[in-house]
């Protein structure tokens, strides 16, 4: 999917919500555990219930990898279900990968070609040749970690390098890389005030914003500093939506939570 | 495995060689492709032939992930084979993971508990709470990317933050984290002269050194600057050993390459 098509979906649905599929066998309703593939059953129910209110789904790969072979099967079923039933939804592999060039190429192949994700999150520490193999893919996005939503973001990301913070240096440098038009950036919602500075460097790129909801970030703040004329935001919520209830109507309640966020987003979009 | 046990193995075998299992269906001998699990068949042949000359194996997870479900099965078979046949060999999941705390914990569980690796490589960009969940595991090591062997290492890792390079700041900061005694560090062989500086900060920690061989680093240089009294080095070679030949005697030739490196290492160890 192109950025333009994603923007069209956002205006059509009046939503820039991304639902994080951080599916954990210890947190899903226990009655699902007797199903053949509880992870897929849970994801399918969440997707069927919430797809009207969001434009993207983001499985965090760690949750699938923790289940080994069966986790990979569940991930594959989930992405195939999205492609066949809801092809207009944008998909993000939250994998935070990055390695030397020939190895990054293997990761890119795994997530873009084999699983068919529209995008993948990538860590910047290893620099240009660790990211460019992801950028080579047409109509795919590489979402670079810039400023993350966790406490540890302040350990290195906000260190001064010369006269600017490392995360700004990462963003600026990444813009010089080949096919940099395929970049999006992760910017944590718990640091919404930083978004104004970031928008000065990258007014047009999409930002994937985690940390609204369970991690305490505010949607209003994110919109105030992060929206651009084409929206340019995907705001993710995982736990606060998918684990809103562990009863048998968990999917309905997840849908209500997603709808509530979509309603807030519709208000923000009217201000554009 | 503890660091002490690893050191004992190194002195016993007169080797600190790690063989990288970057197993790629496009590079293994074509006649193996008719086997049921070509990746495992290749790994088994390489392991059986080289295990006398090395102390560790390091599958790079990207190569397995690129094959989806079947790749995870091959990885699992490989690590189970190592555990059952060669339990004295140290195992490294070269995964370069790192995420917010609850997610890093899922990765740690996947690689330490489920697959039973002795160690995993982890990226530092997200800071303390992204790494500490890995450090909690007893008798397991977390190998933090400090200075990598690729060109892109100079994009961010060697940036000055205050009066020192980012990679030094990463090393120093990581020593303040809980259970930091479980840390090892990745330091690329193509930057051997940096090892002297790094040894001033961490005289005792093990360093995993990629980049000797195909990437052009020199074993002599690495030893000159990197060896400590307990050795403290694991030097990795992947392509130069496992792909030394694509004929039917590829494993024998890989063994000869590994033996040649082991011989060089024995000479270096005698100087201690």
Automatic annotation (TrEMBL), chains A, B:
GO terms for molecular function: orotidine-5'-phosphate decarboxylase activity. It comes from the Bacteria. Gene3D superfamilies: Aldolase class I (3.20.20.70). CDD domains: OMP_decarboxylase_like. Residues 16-254 form the Orotidine 5'-phosphate decarboxylase domain. It is an enzyme of class 4 (lyase). The keyword Translocase does not apply. InterPro entries: Aldolase_TIM (IPR013785), OMPdecase_type-2 (IPR011995), OMPdeCOase_dom (IPR001754), RibuloseP-bd_barrel (IPR011060). The keyword Lyase applies. The active site is at 96 (proton donor). It catalyses: orotidine 5'-phosphate + H(+) = UMP + CO2. Keywords: Decarboxylase, Lyase, Pyrimidine biosynthesis. Its EC number is 4.1.1.23. Pathway: Pyrimidine metabolism; UMP biosynthesis via de novo pathway; UMP from orotate: step 2/2. Belongs to the OMP decarboxylase family. Type 2 subfamily. This is Orotidine 5'-phosphate decarboxylase. The gene is pyrF.
